[in-house]
Each structure stands twice: as structure tokens, then as C-alpha cells.
Amino acid sequence: MERTPRYRTEITALFRVALVIFVVTVVIGIANGTKVFGTLDRNVLLTHLHAGTIGWITLGAAALTLWLFSGAATGSGPRPLAVGLAVTVACYVAAFLSGHIVARA
After folding, report:
1. In a domain, 2, yes or no
2. Would you say residue 42 lies in a domain?
3. Which of 4, 17, 45, 87 stands 20 to 30 A from 52 (CA)?
């Protein structure tokens, strides 16, 4: 019998946001490698770097941790944390793409 993770909705949301950010990272990496759009702006390359290192890796690790240890969790704490993490990381990646120095800080 399969056991459904306790916080399946949160885990799925984190993995989906991580996948979208991963696709952004891959598209920027391929565009940079093939020079299909010429030389990419520094802000775009920083988006590629930070979306990978802090974006999808962090979201994937958080989802995996929640999945593995969901049996030990109590209450509704993981839900706001998952939503907050997904929104914060997506805004962080967008801040690097915008090039706005204050938004990056």
C-alpha cells in the first residue's frame, strides 16, 4: 500500500516552482552557450547563476526534506513556509533579471 505524503500539496508546489526556475536556468544557459541572442547582458547571466544556485536547488532540497520528514511534522507550519519560500525565491530570481541593485540586496 502506498503512503501519501502528509504535505503533498506543499511538496508538489515547491517542486513545480523549482522546475519553472530550472527551465529558466537551462534556457539562459543554452542561449549563452549557443550565442543565439548574441552576448547576453550581465544581469541575465547573474539570473542564470543565482536561479541555479539559490533557486531550484534550494526549492528542491526544501521539498525533498518536507517529503522525507513529513511524518514528524505537526501543525500547519510547513504550508506558510512552503508558500513563502516559493514566492521569495521567485522574486529573488526576478530581482536579478531586473538588474535593480536595491532589489538584489
Report:
1. no
2. yes
3. 4
Give the C-alpha separation, 59 to 78, whole Å: 13
Query: CB-based contacts of 77: which residues, under 8 Å, 6+ apart?
Result: none
| 73: pLDDT strictly greater than 70 | no
Decide if pLDDT at 20 tops 60.
Answer: yes
For the chain, what is the domain count? 1
Strand (E) positions, 39-91? none
73: cell is 511534522
H and E: helices and strands count for the chain? 5, 0
- Torsion angle in degrees (nearest 10) through CA of 71, 72, 74, 77: -90
Residues across the chain: 105
Residue at grid coordinates 544557459: 29
Q: Is 43 within a domain?
A: yes
- For the ranges 8-12, 39-43, 91-95, the maximum mean pLDDT occurs at 8-12
| 101-105 mean pLDDT | 68
25 lies in some domain: yes
